């Protein structure tokens, strides 16, 4: 065997020995925009995750003697109308977006959407029809108006329920921390986020269930649960990753829009939507542009980074 042939054979063995996700990561790592997007997302969400340590001030700390200050040594990004530090509020707003986004994606997309899509595609029949008709009902409803209606209708009841928990248990600070707002926004977004994921997964499962390895597993007496989660789930894992990458940006944007309308995360919890609302208006922007520019730039960077990362990941999975 020549040296060239040996080298070729060794390279082929190395490629065969690598996992599919290692190959995808290698392709993704070569895309500079994807790596820059990952860094931006990590910095924004990392600052939110460690806001209690990194933020110079509390997000509720007010200084009415120093409202609407510009950039300075004490407040690097200025202060809002109540004298609250904009940098600190931006960090805690990132934490709010992170909490809501991860909770909704894990429950609505990963848990509900994928499970219902797998079951509908594999079982078929009336189970498939029931799941898909329920999905049609949810998808036919206007998304944003329904989210606003749900939040406006149930937010006071959820707040009272959380306050009642505080009164009956040793738990304290749930209402002041914004837990009630997180809960209602999370539930409302999860209610609508599963439909698209379920449809995509179902379509792929309909193709996979006719493959020989599924028929072989059935003939050997494998249970339906084993077939779904041990044989079908790995076959749709690439779709799940793509759905998560695109869903993160969409959910983050929805949470910000709801808070901007005033029916999302409620004060005293910090939110980018509330910051954008407080800084909007022509006169406000002319007099104090940092009130709008600080949250606006951060939100733009975050959503744009998610969009770039989703496109790059899609290309990497498809081998481009």
Overall outline:
globular
Tell me the name of the CATH class.
Answer: Mainly Alpha
Largest sheet: none
Rg, Å, rounded = 24 Å
Structural domain tally: 1
Taking all residues together, what is the mean pLDDT? 84
Contiguous helical run count: 14
What is the H/E string?
Answer: HHHHHHHHHHHHHH
Structural class: mainly alpha
Sequence stretches where pLDDT stays below 50 over 5 or more residues: 1-15
Strand content: under 5%
Shape-level CATH architecture: Orthogonal Bundle
- Helix content bin: over 70%
Strand elements, count:
0
List the helices and strands and how they pair.
Blueprint: H1 3-17, H2 20-29, H3 32-49, H4 51-54, H5 86-123, H6 125-140, H7 143-168, H8 179-208, H9 212-219, H10 224-235, H11 237-261, H12 272-279, H13 282-287, H14 290-317
